[in-house]
Amino acid sequence: MARNPISIEVLETLDAIERRGSFAKAAEELNKATSAISYAVQKLEEQLGISLFQRLGRRSVLTPAGRLILAEGREILQTTRRLADKAKEVATGWEPRISIGIESLQSYVDFFQVISAFLLEFPTVEIDISECVLNGGWEALEQGRVDLLVGAPGPVPSLKGYRAVVIERGELVPVIAANHALAKQLDNKQNTERLLAQLRRIVIHDTSFSGITRSEGLSSDGQMFYVQNMDQKIHAILAGIGIGNIPKHRIQGYLDKGILLPLGIQQKGGVESFLAWKINNKGKGLKVITDRFIALQSSK
């Protein structure tokens, strides 16, 4: 098999020539002789049987074929740089990628502030975020699909080797849309309790695949309407399809405007939320993120 003439070094040379506008300036940047730059380009042109540059006045301008090679080549250069960075991180205990599952009831504001600050300091670490519901988060942690859970509901599964820290959980409010057909009849506690069985519950699917799924909040009496995430649940309630428990911070604007109305019904006792990860996960990036989440909770 013929040797590929397009090397990382020659791609760096083409990149420097295009950015600096001349062979001489590219040579200066790369700390090479101008003749060495010219020779590298000429050799590549001969091996490929095409022209890569053309002269326009004093500038060296890429031909269409040259632009194609450089455009694709810059992606290769970026990939190799990221690869080198990640290899260094792995060798020093830093993970190249951290997968985080966030419970659907958790506030996103604090969560993304912590992630944003982390990425400013460690920009080469990739973050993969997924939404979890109830048992689905614990299952994802056990199976290694996520490295960290944020806002996972208790109880913490026993004998799994998890480190779990209690974190703040937002207030849940059972609500109905003001435009719902029965909303005007819910004028007192007695009417609400009488009509509750007629109100369809909007429920987010537990994201557990193999475990026993569960629900939380309102009773399971009456007809169900299942959705995939919290945004779908909110919009289903706004559309008058049914009722459901929603974190207050997600719907405060709708409550203030009277678009959503709180239901005066008895709530079950609160459930603790946890920040959780496997004890045997020694990644430095994970430790930084968990420490910052814990510090944020302590400051409240």
TrEMBL record:
<protein>
    <submittedName>
        <fullName>LysR family transcriptional regulator</fullName>
    </submittedName>
</protein>
<keyword id="KW-0805">Transcription regulation</keyword>
<dbReference type="InterPro" id="IPR036390">
    <property type="entry name" value="WH_DNA-bd_sf"/>
</dbReference>
<comment type="similarity">
    <text>Belongs to the LysR transcriptional regulatory family.</text>
</comment>
<dbReference type="InterPro" id="IPR036388">
    <property type="entry name" value="WH-like_DNA-bd_sf"/>
</dbReference>
<dbReference type="Pfam" id="PF00126">
    <property type="entry name" value="HTH_1"/>
</dbReference>
<dbReference type="GO" id="GO:0003700">
    <property type="term" value="F:DNA-binding transcription factor activity"/>
</dbReference>
<keyword id="KW-0238">DNA-binding</keyword>
<dbReference type="InterPro" id="IPR000847">
    <property type="entry name" value="LysR_HTH_N"/>
</dbReference>
<dbReference type="GO" id="GO:0000976">
    <property type="term" value="F:transcription cis-regulatory region binding"/>
</dbReference>
<keyword id="KW-0804">Transcription</keyword>
<dbReference type="Pfam" id="PF03466">
    <property type="entry name" value="LysR_substrate"/>
</dbReference>
<dbReference type="InterPro" id="IPR005119">
    <property type="entry name" value="LysR_subst-bd"/>
</dbReference>
<feature type="domain" description="HTH lysR-type">
    <location>
        <begin position="6"/>
        <end position="63"/>
    </location>
</feature>
